[in-house]
Amino acid sequence: MKAGDIVKGRITSIKPYGAFVKVDESIDGLIHISEISDRFVRSIEDYLSVGDIVTLKVLSVSREQKLSLSYKSENKNGRKKRETIELVYGFKPLADQLDIWIKDYLKNDI
Questions:
Q1: Could you give the dihedral angle defined by the CA atoms of residues 40, 28, 63 and 2, in that order, rounded to the nearest 10 degrees?
Q2: pLDDT in tens, the chain (110 residues)
Q3: What is the sign, positive or negative, of the torsion defined by CA atoms of 33, 37, 43, 48?
Q4: How far apart are CA 84 and CA 76, in angstroms?
Q5: Cβ neighbours for 67, distance < 8 A, ≥ 6 positions apart
Q6: In angstroms, rounded to a whole number, what is the distance separating the alpha carbons of residues 47 and 79?
């Protein structure tokens, strides 16, 4: 294995500074937080989860066969798994329908 190779690996652990990856039985690597996305990464868990199988680019290989890996180079969209959404209407549409649903339920249940 050499720098530039594309590999698949399983995320085994996530720390504040990066994600540890198992490429095969004898080769481990690290995706540093700076290699997760081109965007600001507040939390690695927004992008990766333990157990995920991901495609990565090998940046370097140490003498001990430890890999430095890049997630962002092979996953260009760099999208978060979890996005923050704002509710425009909140629960009002549900509250407006609640009485109708209850009446329908009672009518069909009896």
A1: -70
A2: 889 999 999 999 999 999 999 998 889 999 999 999 988 888 999 899 999 999 999 999 998 889 999 999 888 765 666 556 666 777 788 888 899 889 888 887 65
A3: negative
A4: 20
A5: 1, 7, 21, 23, 27, 28, 29, 30, 58, 59, 60, 61
A6: 7
Q: Which are the contacts of 10, defined by CB distance < 8 A and separation ≥ 6? A: 21, 22, 51, 52, 53, 54
DSSP character at residue 104: H
Q: Where are the beta strands (DSSP E) in the chain?
A: 6-15, 18-24, 27-32, 53-61, 66-70
Total count of residues recorded for the chain: 110
- Main-chain dihedrals φ then ψ at residue 106, nearest 5 degrees: -65, -35
